[in-house]
Design goal:
- The chain is of the alpha/beta class.
- The protein contains 14 helices and 19 strands.
- The strands form 4 sheets. The chain has an 8-stranded mixed beta sheet, covered by helices on one side.
- A hairpin with a 4-residue loop joins strand 15 and strand 16.
Length: about 500
């Protein structure tokens, strides 16, 4: 028998060593590999379970197909008919408003609706869950005409939503559409361009709403609204969802298509929480995404929202929701009185309402932040606009304290807070000027605070009123800058005068 060479023996020994080492390594890392694979597998399982649509929804998706039933299609006009009216500018006559309400709380909500509803001008309907016998005869001279919600009992098998009456609220869109079709307000006449949906505790600012919607082509599919202020509310629903309490707008052809397929949508998505998410999912099926407008305000907040409203984004103020969940907008007034007060300014110049204008009085080292028609904040220091644009966090969220915008914490020393002046009255001064007056209220800064560290008269404590002079020309439009302003004295005692003007070319504020 031939003996192996020394080289072969050495190679064999090295091979055996490497094999043993590989086996040891495999034995060592095998549990880790298995754990890693299981972790990845579980991750995808959890993602699939948490992501939407759910397994049950997928089953419905597989079993539901589009249906062109006569009950839906008889309300649908052709696109060419509706696009016939394109030459005129959008006006309030082109809007129809559907309002979701309840008989039980109409007594409380009635002043909210009547603060903005314009009888014989505004078109729309208030939907109720029963006959309002206690309020008959109905006050058509001040309130919207009412309708009763559609019976949703046929949808009982697919109504597994977390929110009660989700389907009923969702069907308000198609009910409003059909009401106008039956009246001849849409279709071939081309009168209606937009359907606006809101709640009975939503306050709408109609002039601004008309101005914003006029920027969009109503002949195309548009879904216009905004998210909640709080991240938690958006995560719980969708960042691509308009919150119905804040209000949203659907172009005529989109409302038309949604009405045609509403039953299919209801069958497809029985497990979503509420009507707004159901709507967003249905519109996604139609290939439509949310167009964000920052002037819609859901107000998923508690407490004093003056800090938020005093630093409104550079966008027309369109709506305000959850009036009952926050403090009255003005000190020493109840909620209804506060809305009446805010509407005084809105009637004079809705385009400037809450729009923030910042200017400085350098000789006094003062900063002024004006939310037109609402507040003036006076700081006894120079603060740049980028800081003043952030709302003072006078409010708290419904859930986790995460907001979709930057905020400023209130100083620990309340004497570092601004002097706050609230809107009191408005007057037109000639053809080209509007004068608004604001009075001091000790809401953030105690009256006992020393001025500039002492009790001298050089501070701002002697200022009891602020008078703001603004032009009568409409403010805003796409690409507009914020207005500039100059600070000066006034003939009125203890009053500071601020005059708005257009900013100079390349002018830097501050």
């Amino acid at each position: 028998m031939r003996m192996p060479s020394p080289m072969a023996v050495k190679l064999h020994q090295r091979f055996v060593y490497l094999s043993d080492a590989a086996g040891n390594i495999t034995s060592l890392y095998k549990p880790l590999i298995i754990i890693a694979l299981l972790t990845v597998f579980l991750y995808y399982i959890i993602q699939s379970y948490d992501s939407y649509p759910s397994f049950e929804t997928l089953t419905y998706l597989a079993n539901t197909k589009p249906s062109n039933s006569s009950s839906s299609s008889r309300y649908i006009s052709t696109s060419s008919d509706h696009s016939s009216s394109t030459s005129t500018t959008t006006s309030i006559n082109h809007l129809v408003i559907g309002i979701a309400g309840s008989v039980k709380i109409w007594r409380v909500r009635k002043p909210y609706i009547e603060s903005w509803w314009r009888p014989n001008i505004t078109r729309g309907y208030l939907f109720l869950d029963g006959e309002p016998t206690a309020y008959l005869p109905w006050a058509v001279s001040t309130s919207p005409p009412y309708r009763i919600y559609e019976d949703t009992s046929p949808y009982k098998e697919v109504d597994r939503h977390g929110m009660r009456h989700a389907i009923r609220m969702f069907k308000v869109i198609s009910q409003t559409f059909r009401e106008e079709q039956d009246k001849g307000g849409g279709g071939g006449g081309g009168v209606i361009r937009w359907f606006v949906m809101a709640d009975d505790d939503t306050v709408l600012f109609l002039d601004n709403l008309v101005e914003v919607l006029s920027r969009y082509d109503h002949r195309k599919y548009f879904y216009i609204g905004e998210n909640s202020e709080t991240v938690w509310s958006d995560v719980s629903n969708s960042f691509e969802m308009a919150f119905g309490g804040a209000g949203y707008a659907l172009s005529y052809p989109l409302a038309e298509a949604l009405t045609m397929h509403s039953d299919l949508c209801i069958q497809r998505y029985p497990f979503l929480w509420g009507s707004d998410h159901l709507l967003q999912s249905c519109l996604a099926d139609l290939g439509v995404s949310l167009t964000h407008e920052r002037g819609f305000h859901q107000i998923d907040l508690h407490g004093d929202i003056s800090g938020l409203l005093s630093s409104h984004p550079q966008s027309p103020f369109l709506s305000l929701h959850h009036i009952d969940s926050v403090n009255p907008l003005f000190p020493d007034m109840n909620r209804s009185e506060s809305l009446t007060q805010l509407m005084k300014a809105a009637k004079s110049d809705q385009s400037r309402l809450l729009q923030q204008t910042i200017c400085y009085q350098k000789q006094s080292n003062w900063s002024f932040s004006v939310a037109w028609g609402y507040t003036v904040q006076l700081y006894e220091s120079i603060i740049p606009p980028s800081v003043l644009h952030r709302p003072l966090q006078t409010f708290s969220p419904w859930n986790q304290p995460l907001y979709r915008f930057n905020t400023r914490w209130l100083p620990k020393n309340p004497c570092e807070n601004p002097h706050v002046f609230f809107f009191e009255e408005v007057e037109e001064a000639g053809r080209d000027r509007i004068i608004t007056r604001y009075g001091r209220r000790p809401v953030l800064r105690p009256p006992t605070c020393p001025s500039n560290g002492d009790n001298s008269s050089s501070g701002a404590d002697h200022v009891w009123r602020v008078l703001v002079v603004s032009p009568t020309t409409r403010y805003g439009g796409v690409g507009s800058r914020r207005e500039c302003c100059d600070v000066g004295g006034s003939d009125e005692k203890n009053t500071t005068r601020i005059k708005f003007r257009a900013c100079l070319k390349d002018e830097i504020v501050g």
